[in-house]
Design brief:
It is an enzyme of class 6 (ligase). Catalyzes the synthesis of GMP from XMP. By secondary structure, the protein is an alpha/beta fold. It has helices spanning about 15-25, 40, 70, 80-90, 175-185, 195-210, 225-235, 255-265, 275-285, 290-310, 325-330, 350-360, 370-380, 385-390, 410-425, 480-495, and strands at about 5, 25-30, 45-50, 75-80, 95-105, 125-135, 140-145, 150-155, 160-165, 215-220, 240-245, 270-275, 320, 360-365, 435-450, 455-465, 475, 495-500. Bound molecules: adenosine-5'-triphosphate (ATP), xanthosine-5'-monophosphate, glutamine and magnesium ion (MG).
């Protein structure tokens, strides 16, 4: 099978590049930059892509690439840091900018390029950089510019290409076309990858790893863990598969009952539903730091799981989770050691999970995939559209949507307000247009007037975004009427809330959740 290798300098979107290429039907894999690309690793590889990075090339300790990458003579596409890397490696220079470029940027093309075949003049790219090419490397010429900076350069003879923008993010117009031009036009790769093939491969590998051992799946009723349940129940003897749902007390209104019904429909023999609300709320008392909350929750998930499993499974068992690549990369756990921690997802960074992972006892069959790919896999294995189309809900639940310290009363207030918001989205037929929507309770109060009296109430933020994979997101452009009506429904029904605001930040620079 032809392959494209991504050299990961720790950028947030390295896996996203890989999945774009999988979408073309071409296999792609990720390697750390220090990897010696031996002939063995390079067999079937048709091209290399250098990813972005949180590092600047001129910083002490910035990642470098093993010389074998250049010696291979393969076509190379450098994206952002990858472009900076190639530029400095071949004698050009890179400088920090006083005014950084984040978000949309219009391009012009001084020179034609094979990379831009079929791409119209003047499209809108997506940038996320603080450094820029000051002088291109020897043999390179500039093929695109944004208002202020070089946006692309190439040495077509050596088949080396650099892009300052990110063609892999869905916000970049013609990004897919540019990657296709590289993979097919420049590298000449052939197709051989499919989701059906992926399903066969993970099923076979789970069977082989698990043997006769039982598997315990932590399941939330969300898309990811339901897909894992489907995969496990079909790959293994269902007698060996145990499903466990933990009610953390941080769930939404009516969630546990709804999940119970949908889990019963999956047809598992062993299903336990654990009420651990008191333990979670007690452990979170007075804790207001977001990373500390996440750590406590991550650890409690494992502790609750361990104490509840006694008497149900004897001996060694594998722990399965619906971890996605988004969870790993944001937690700083991508391939290699260069990615920064954006937030520690509860299912990744807990020491207890890490211990299980290091012991090779974790099964995470979706850990290379993104949400939209998981949804495709879910449809392939026949899950119902109501499960596959559900908005994501993070494991730490309402705890990361109540800013600051969490308590029972705040959970109740947020639960009521969030339920009104979501119900209205269904009623107005907006739910499926939106990728994720929820309410956030802010730790501030503001003054209002109700029935001629003063009201000193909480501020609630509404968040609704559109996205493909959770890596980048745009604010959902509500009709003003919808927002005004929903706001007044909430303030009229939840007396503790005095004011509603709408969050109008995209990702980046904001993340989707507030903590
Ligand atoms: N309440 C819960 N009980 C048991 N396991 C959970 C719970 N919440 C999360 N998990 C575990 O953590 C993993 C990651 O959570 P995450 O929210 O990303 O996925 P999900 O809940 O399966 O899907 P979705 O993103 O649609 O909410 C889940 O796949 C599941 O294994
Ligand atoms: O299971 C989870 N455990 C977590 O700790 C967690 N944090 C964020 N999310 C979800 O991940 C997606 C990207 O979120 P952010 O832009 O807020 O990082 C969004 O869909 C978030 O809801 C989590 N899911
Ligand atoms: N996205 C990137 O690769 C960023 C590269 C570098 N950290 C910069 O800010 O320019
Ligand atoms: Mg979830």
């Amino acid at each position: 099978m032809d392959k494209i290798l991504i050299v990961d300098f720790g950028g947030q979107t390295a896996q996203l590049i890989a999945r774009r290429i999988r979408d073309f039907g071409v296999y792609s894999d990720i390697v750390a930059p220090e990897t010696n690309l031996s002939p063995n690793i390079l067999s079937d590889v048709k091209g290399l892509i250098f990813s972005g990075s949180p590092w600047s090339v001129y910083e002490e300790g910035a990642p470098v690439v093993h010389p074998s990458a250049y010696e291979s003579g393969l076509p190379i596409l450098g994206i952002c840091y990858g472009f900076h890397r190639m530029t400095t490696d071949f004698g050009g220079s890179v400088l920090g900018l006083a005014k950084k470029e984040y978000g949309r940027a219009a391009l012009r093309f001084p020179k034609p390029s094979k990379l831009f075949d079929g791409v119209p003049e003047g499209f809108i790219s997506w940038m996320s950089h603080g450094d820029s090419i000051a002088e291109v490397a020897e043999g390179f010429q500039i093929t695109a510019r944004s208002a202020d900076h070089p946006a692309a350069a190439e040495d077509p003879e050596k088949r080396r290409y650099g892009l300052q923008f990110h063609p892999e993010v869905t916000h970049c117009e013609y990004g897919i076309k540019i990657l296709e031009n590289f993979v097919f036009g420049i590298c000449g790769a052939d197709k051989g990858w499919s989701m059906e093939g992926y399903l066969e491969e993970v099923s076979a590998s789970i069977k082989k790893r698990v043997g006769d051992h039982p598997v315990l799946l932590l399941i939330s009723g969300g898309v990811d863990s339901s897909v894992v349940a489907g995969v496990l129940l079909s790959a293994l003897d269902p007698e060996k598969v145990h499903l466990m749902y933990i009610d953390t007390g941080l769930m939404r209104k009516g969630e546990t009952e709804a999940v119970r019904k949908s889990l019963e429909a999956l047809g598992a023999t062993h299903l336990s539903i654990i009420d651990a609300g008191d333990r979670f709320l007690h452990a979170l008392e007075g804790v207001d730091d977001p990373e500390e909350k996440r750590r406590i929750i991550g650890d409690l998930f494992v502790e609750v799981q361990k104490s509840d499993i006694v008497g149900k499974i004897d001996g060694d068992y594998f722990l399965a989770q619906g971890t996605l690549y988004t969870d790993l990369i944001e937690s700083g756990k991508g391939v290699g050691k260069n990615a920064k921690v954006i937030k520690s997802h509860h299912n990744v960074r807990s020491p207890l999970i890490e211990a299980k992972r290091n012991a090779g006892m974790i099964i995470e069959p979706l850990d290379r995939l993104y949400k939209d790919e998981v949804r495709r896999l879910g449809r392939l294995i026949g899950l119902s559209e109501s499960v596959v189309g559900r908005h994501p809900f993070p494991g730490p639940g309402l705890a990361v949507r109540i800013l600051g310290a969490v308590d029972r009363e705040k959970c109740r207030i947020l639960r009521e307000a969030d339920a009104i918001f979501i119900e209205e989205l269904h009623r107005r037929k907006l739910y499926d247009e939106i990728w994720q929507a929820f309410a956030v309770l802010l730790p501030i109060k503001s003054v209002g007037v109700t029935g001629d009296a003063r009201r000193y109430g909480y501020v609630l933020a509404l968040r609704a975004i559109v996205s493909h994979d959770g890596m980048t997101a745009d604010v959902y452009p509500f009709d003003t009427k919808d927002l005004l009506e929903i706001s007044s429904l909430i303030t009229n029904s939840v007396s503790e809330i005095g004011r509603v605001v709408y969050d109008v930040s995209s990702k980046p620079p904001a993340t989707i959740e507030w903590e």
